[in-house]
Amino acid sequence: MNSFAFDQIASNQRVPGSQVEISNVRALQGLPPAQYKLLLIGLCYNIFNPSSVAPVRITRPEDGAVLGGRASMIHAMCEAALAANRDVELWALPVAENPAGTPATGTITIGGPATGAGTIALMIGGQRIQVQVASGASANTIAAALNSAINAFGDQYVTSTVAANVVTLTARHTGAYGNDIDVRTNYFDGEKLPAGVTATIVGMAGGTSNPDLTSIIAALGDEQYQAMAIGLADAANISAIDVDLADRWGPGRQIEGRAYFGASGSFSTLSSFGATRNGIHSTIVGGNKLPDPPWKVAAAFAAVAAYNLQIDPARPLTDLVVTGIRAPRLEHRFTRTERNLLLRDGISTFRVTPAGEVAIERLISCYQVNAAGFDDPSYLDVQTTATLGYMRSSWRARMAQKFPRAKMTADTIAAVRAETIALARDWEDAGLMEDVDGFLAGLVIERDSGNPTQLNILMTPDTVNGLLQLAARIEFIL
């Protein structure tokens, strides 16, 4: 019996000569690079007929406008993801609005006349609109100017109409998502309304009937997206995503990924919502009175997380700046106590830097309790599933590379064991696991008792955890 086998050279040839085949079985050394694809799922305008559209590669913000229309949800998500990180592989999938949906509306009622010249600094969905006001301008004149400025802003998420001194805003998209479009004046310090002018805002509300993502999810098939940013963050669609991601995580498909959602609301609102979720592979980033709409928050956070987990799936994401997302005003930011409680309710948190930038504090899964209803932190941090997913893919790649068309022999089993141990040491060197000796002690490789062609392997890697808290005690001496 030969000690090795050829793939392309038969042993029964009679013609004299030499033949040499080339094999790449030993070519690759070390760990394979991680590959991350980020998929954005968001609304487009119905005239774009998304039923015939598959995920599209995105390389520039204008691609989102072509895909779903200017100022559409999917356009805004493309802009946000690229602003946060331009190096992650980005794809987008547009979703049609629910035909039965109604758009959210809000109003801005202007009081006047202006007793001094100045500027109205309006912000809608994080987008700044400035309107110059002349001294003596009436409320109706100011309202008309405000209406014109809003409609002239091409990428605005709302349209507006005016009647006397009342400007009515209407979300471009139907559905409840328009209720989360923030409308405010004087976001930046130093901004104020002109003397004599008032602006009474009734926030966006009344949007109803969201689309169902079930058919969209099915259309994705078995294409793997390691990260997804979902603009449709209602309970029904999050549940549908949870089911699909759990199936993708399983051994039958092995195309794991994580979904990122944004949510805007008070502490009690977010805490109550988070307590109803328990998805291992879903992450909800929450904030109070966010200037930017939640779908932009989801896209931006997903882009930053995907890029950095691709570099090192075990390294904490804490303090990474999320470029392009505006921070809540100081009075609307959650306290440390509130953020700690939100992290216990499945809501991920962010901090605001001294420069006013939004930075990741801790990204967690929504998983909180096991099947028996007891607290279970095993899948708390997003790095855990990212690390395990990479371990699985790198082990499969190593086995496929080293044992193509292998036969089940004692030598093969020994070689599988040796390659698994070598891979574990590579994981340790990369900072993905520790205690290789413990891994070796727990490693089991055996033939399946019922299937003569199956080799069963039990691995117990001790995954590396992030250093997130330091606790010290100072006992001073006078």
Automatic annotation (TrEMBL):
Residue ranges constituting the Tail sheath protein subtilisin-like domain according to the UniProt record: 206-365
Superkingdom as given in the UniProt entry: Bacteria
Pfam families, per the entry: Phage_sheath_1 (PF04984), Phage_sheath_1C (PF17482)
Family annotation (InterPro entries): Phage_sheath_subtilisin, Tail_sheath, Tail_sheath_C
Domain (Tail sheath protein C-terminal): residue spans on this chain: 375-476
Family classification: Belongs to the myoviridae tail sheath protein family.
Protein name, entry field: Tail sheath protein
Source organism of this protein record: Sphingobium ummariense RL-3
Source organism phylogeny: Bacteria, Pseudomonadati, Pseudomonadota, Alphaproteobacteria, Sphingomonadales
